Amino acid sequence: MKTTKLLLTCVLFAANLFVAKAEKDLLLKSIDSQLLTYTKKSPTMFAAKAKPAALQQVVKLNLFQLPLLNFSLQYECAFHKNLSGALGFSFLMPRGIPAAIYEPSQNANGFTLPRFNGWSVTPEFRFYPGKKVEHQAPHGFYLAPYFRYSKYSIGGEYQNYSVDTNGVAHDDHYTMKASYYGFTGGLMMGSQWIIGEHFSIDWWIFGFGAGKAKFQIDATSTDGSIYLNTADQAQLRTDITNNIGELGRFGAGSVSVETTTNSAKVTVSGLPMTSIRAGLTVGFKF
């Protein structure tokens, strides 16, 4: 008896499943039939949504900076018909200071072999206002608000020849490095042309930014002839603070001085900094 009931239960359960499946199949067929009818009446009613356009990416080199030994690269990615983002990086190769600006010292006070270099990173956001397909990002006129961090340095060996009150000559040698670094924010306008499938020309018409920076000087005695005790260091800090105005516009800020027995570091904060952008880039689009 129990076996019969169990068998009956299994049969009824299977029958219910079969009926449910049959009803489901009929329902699906009905839905398919209705969809087919609606599709015939309006072919676009159930058409798949168009996929968003693929990202347009361009890698570019600024030709205007090459004669200055400054390698300026930019990557741009257009993620909307009117919008793109870009990231630029420039590196100024280490170079000597032109003689027209500074003549290296041979046997007197001053830098003997000054070298200059710098770098900057520039993220920017571009807005292309064109409405026509052929004037959508990354093609056409654009406005680009940007942020830039820059650092420029000059360094080398420095010698200081002097005679003390006892008539004794001193020829002290130092390694010195001066850095000017900070950030600017600004706006640039330009126009870019996409030629063919992979070639681009981007004209940075003009850009200007303003911000804040620091100026720092590090000097360390390298010949072991300098030893500053506590009183000497205090006097040196006072002398530097009192004569900071000799740095001109690089001294017009908040001054801090750090000293050791053979070195001094001067930092001037809150200085103005500006950036000017212009150039012509060629690039590869992919």
Layout of SSEs?
Blueprint: H1 2-41, E1 56-62, E2 70-80, E3 83-96, E4 110-111, E5 115-127, E6 140-163, E7 169-195, E8 199-221, H2 230-242, E9 254-259, E10 263-285
Antiparallel strand pairs: 1-2, 1-10, 2-3, 3-5, 4-6, 5-6, 6-7, 7-8, 8-10, 9-10
Helix content percent band: 10-25%
Structural category: alpha+beta
The spatial strand order of the largest sheet comes to 1-2-3-5-6-7-8-10
The CATH class of the largest domain: Mainly Beta
The overall average pLDDT, rounded, is 81
Give the helices and strands as they follow along the chain.
HEEEEEEEEHEE
Shape, per Cα inertia axes: elongated
**With helices defined by DSSP (H or I, 4 residues minimum), what is the helix count?**
2
List unreliable stretches of 5+ residues: 1-29, 34-52
Strand content: over 45%
The number of strands is 10
Structural write-up:
The structure is a single chain. With 286 residues, this protein is an alpha+beta fold. The protein folds into 2 domains: 1-50; 56-285, Porin (Beta Barrel), CATH 2.40.160. 19% of the residues lie in helices and 52% in strands. The chain has helices at 2-41, 230-242; strands at 56-62, 70-80, 83-96, 110-111, 115-127, 140-163, 169-195, 199-221, 254-259, 263-285. Strands 1-2-3-5-6-7-8-10 form an 8-stranded antiparallel beta barrel. Strand 7 and strand 8 (199-221) form a beta hairpin. The protein is elongated and about 80 Å long. Mean pLDDT is 81; it is low at 1-29 and 34-52.
